[in-house]
Design brief:
heterodimer; A: alpha+beta; Ubiquitin-like (UB roll); five-stranded mixed sheet; elongated; B: alpha+beta; Uridine Diphospho-n-acetylenolpyruvylglucosamine Reductase, domain 2; Uridine Diphospho-n-acetylenolpyruvylglucosamine Reductase, domain 3; Enolase-like, domain 1; five-stranded antiparallel sheet; 14 strands
């Protein structure tokens, strides 16, 4: 992966501190050489080329850039890319399999949980973190869990319905305990 | 937006981290959750020469209660760890009420209580909570550890009394002198916005008498405010409608709010009065921690309605 830096003509440019990191994104192992000030959102979008992670406000408000790091949802505009060294990142591209949408994606389709779609990846990942922790959430739990994600189109009614749809769908399936416990594992 | 260039180090021990702070030059910052520091660096309000990321230092992600009831919160304990903790409900009603009201769920997953104390934002919730509880911060430096009471730790907006080669490794809530009650109420325009007003109340009762009281205010002054006169009005007597009214009034007069886009000074002062009465009213009607957790739910409802 090649990163291109601004040549500001000063001494500092000649000596850009570059660090090599190893991380996993959506199950695939990666190595990257990056400047420490690169944000995780940029590593994902520009480095790995996965543009489903959206950059919205860029000020830690909107949640459009939400990804999972070691199973925990966070704002990738407010993490340094170097901080995922040795960790596992899940983006919206990691939800579906080759043949099947994730129940959350299916739910957003069934319940019309999006209009413009800009907030949707962040909504889905916040929802995934909730469902991994609590497979049977109440409407209030869902509203609480997505309260860090802003939607400017629809209001939240259909988003909440979509998450509840997915929760019901996931409960119908035989749970896969091994996968669930891996996702629930948090750093510490 | 992205931060200015900096040197990045991710040590694997506290000793290593402290050496980096000691030898790292004039402007070194410790990175824990980064939920305030990274935005400030992106805006170039903060341009440190070096970041010492302590996330790889083992043994800091805990919160636990000592046998005597002292609560200890490690430097990498996230807000969400406290929000979902089974340790806080019942014994730590003020903390249990505040944890779900800090920022938003995504920020709570990464941000830390100790980092919030160090950041010393007048709008920060934890500084008020810890001030009301009489808490302290444990700082570790080359010469060892020292405890700094919160009142001496936060000295102004974004100012703390850590030495340049010290790391805040732990926050401590002392054991209760009696049964703890209290809560935290906050009005915010939307989830994740800075507090319009936040109010932390912590009392300890023994034999029907309030033996210790603390009240502290968020977002209504240039710094976190300890409403010491209000707390003194509660101590040494049983909790009563009269003492609550007096404390609420004194807390309101301790506030130094400014009129801004979040509300008028008069409105914010009024909210302090209401919040103190509401939290203590809940404690009066029931001495259990669950009623005070209920008062936080009322606060959350109020904030959404606002």
């Amino acid at each position: 992966m090649t990163m291109v830096y601004d040549d500001t003509g000063d001494e500092a440019t000649a000596d850009v501190p570059v660090r090599k990191i190893r991380f996993t994104i959506n199950g695939r192992k990666k190595v990257a050489e990056i400047e420490p000030r690169l944000l995780l959102a940029d590593l994902i979008r520009r480095g790995v080329g996965l543009t489903g992670t959206h950059r919205g406000c860029d000020t830690t408000n909107c949640g459009a850039c939400t990804v999972l790091v070691d199973g925990r949802a966070g704002k990738s505009c407010t993490m340094l890319a170097v901080q995922v060294d040795g960790r596992e990142v899940t983006t919206v591209e990691g939800l579906a399999t080759a043949s099947e949408l994730h129940p959350l994606q299916e739910g957003f389709k069934q319940e019309h949980g999006l209009q413009c779609g800009f907030c949707t990846p962040g909504m889905m990942l916040s929802a995934k973190a909730l469902l991994d922790r609590n497979p049977d959430p109440t409407e209030e739990d869902v509203r609480w869990a997505i309260s860090g994600n802003l939607c400017r189109c629809t209001g939240y009614q259909n988003i909440v319905k979509s998450v509840l749809w997915a929760a019901a769908k996931l409960r119908e399936r035989e749970p896969e305990p091994a996968e669930a416990s891996a996702v629930n594992k948090v750093e510490g | 937006m992205f931060p200015a260039r900096f040197r990045y180090e991710a040590p694997h021990s506290l000793d290593e981290a402290i050496s980096l702070l000691r030898d790292g030059g004039d402007y070194v910052k410790v990175l824990a959750g980064g939920q305030s520091l990274v935005p400030m660096m992106k805006l170039r309000f903060a341009t440190p020469d070096m970041l010492v990321d302590i996330n790889d230092v083992p043994g800091l992600a805990y919160h636990r209660t000592d046998p005597d009831g002292t609560l200890r919160i490690g430097a990498l304990c996230r807000h969400a760890d406290l929000e979902f903790s089974s340790l806080l409900p019942g014994t730590q009603p003020t903390m249990a009420a505040a944890a779900p009201l800090v920022a938003d769920p995504l920020v709570r997953n990464r941000g830390t209580l100790v980092g919030s104390l160090c950041h010393a934002d007048p709008q920060g919730d934890w500084a008020s909570v810890m001030l009301a509880l009489g808490g302290s911060v444990i700082a570790q430096g080359p010469a060892g550890r020292r405890a700094i009471p919160l009142a001496e730790f936060v000295t102004g907006p974004f100012e703390n009394t850590l030495g340049h080669d010290e790391i805040a490794v732990e926050a401590v809530v002392p054991k209760a002198l009696g049964t703890r009650a209290g809560g935290y109420l906050k009005l915010e325009r939307r989830v994740g916005d800075f507090a319009t007003v936040g109010t932390a109340v912590a009392i300890e009762t023994s034999g029907g008498t309030v033996v210790r009281a603390g009240i502290a205010l968020t977002g209504v002054g240039g710094s976190t405010i300890a409403a010491t006169d209000a707390a003194a009005a509660l101590a040494g007597k049983p909790l009563s409608a009269d003492s609550i009214a007096e404390a609420a009034e004194l807390a309101a007069s301790a506030a130094q709010p400014k009129t801004d886009h979040r509300g008028t000074a008069e409105y914010k002062r009024h909210l302090v009065r209401v919040f103190v009465s509401r939290i203590l009213g809940g404690s009066l009607s029931s001495t259990t921690g669950s009623s005070t957790t209920g008062s936080s739910a009322t606060g959350a409802a109020a904030e959404r309605a606002a």
